[in-house]
Amino acid sequence: MVEIIPLALPTSADAASLASFGREVRGLSPGELNQDEFQLVSDLLYQHGLLLFRNCHLPPAQQYALTKRFDPASETYGHGNNEVDQSKRSILHPYLKTIPAVPQVQLIGNGTVYGHEGIAQANLKHATHTISHKTVLSEDEMSKGYTRFFRWHIDAALYNLSPPKVTTLYGIQVPQGPKQTVRYDDGSGDELQVPVAPTAFVSTKTMFDMLSPELKSVAVRGRVKYAPHPYVWMSTAKLVNNGLAVETEGREVPYEELPPWEESKIKVHPMLWKNAVTGELHFQVHPTCAAEIYVAALPAHSRKEGELYPEGAHLTDLKEVRALLYQMQRPAIAPKFVYPHAWSEKDLIIFHNRGLLHCIVGTLSEDQVRVFHQCNLAGSDDPIGPSDDDIKKWV
């Protein structure tokens, strides 16, 4: 019998705000779904953003096949097959190891792993704030259990390839340890208690819903232009303390020093992506890869009093771009809106990559081995933005 039950939320969560977020699915084997079962899973995913399956057996080939069912025309890993392995300047390079027989699936985690799916030895590296943040916690603070978010993001190349529709994340070996406390260190005083090395998720539908009317008007009219090869571009820059933005210090790699790129392959996406099943709007912006913002002028005969950018705008100053995005996104990563998943071995999470932001969290020692398989596939199409009716409604 199939059971659909709400996720077990942490005590820090606002249960009302997360009432429709995420579901645990019992009674189905995700690697062996018939068509009716898959349709149920697909509908649930777009309605709730995240699905959890416990105690799964999911070899890499089955994980790839499952992920592909959500976008049958997709073929390659979200950043391109083997591309991350070969791009040593990318900030992603240290964290992803391609499964040789199934290059759409990546090995991620922490510690040294031997003889894994055709990989003789993999020295896995847990993504931690100490590598990427401008300021870091002291050894004494970390020894007391304090930690930070790493980098809030969506899974997407954001150059040449379209964003994946879903990501599947499968826990094979999960480290144990005491709970840690995430410090935001952004002046808010916010802290969040989390299990060891969780993955944190927030709904970008909630992110949009929380905006003021003036910012909703900007969002419904806004488009974001991403930098070419954004993960190389930002590789020399540092992040703010809560992992939601890049410090603007002029440290990005100049465009002329990036790997060869073409203007036609640069991605420009709407700020709001429409959910393919519910029709709801998600504020889906990768904050650390954004380079420019376009805001369309208000429609003719619209009320302009109190509106931001009523005549439209093209923001090219990185500090201004990042300040606007931060203002729009920061409220939704407050502790009460965050779901930090406490992993168990053989957990499978499928999440709507066009409807959430997620983040690696926590600090691990070298002997805390973490082994996961991740799969997402470059989309066969680009996200759809707001309709004319949406624009009329929100401006």
TrEMBL record:
UniProt keyword terms in alphabetical order: Dioxygenase, Iron, Metal-binding, Oxidoreductase
InterPro entries, per database record: TauD-like_sf, TauD/TfdA-like, TfdA_dioxygenase
Segments forming domain TauD/TfdA-like: 19-361
Pfam entry (one): TauD
Gene Ontology molecular function: dioxygenase activity; metal ion binding
Keyword set includes Aminoacyl-tRNA synthetase: no
Cofactor(s) needed by this chain: Fe(2+)
Keyword Oxidoreductase appears in the UniProt entry: yes
Sequence similarity: Belongs to the TfdA dioxygenase family.
PANTHER family: ALPHA-KETOGLUTARATE-DEPENDENT XANTHINE DIOXYGENASE XAN1 (PTHR43779:SF2), DIOXYGENASE RV0097-RELATED (PTHR43779)
Protein name: Clavaminate synthase-like protein
Organism: Heliocybe sulcata
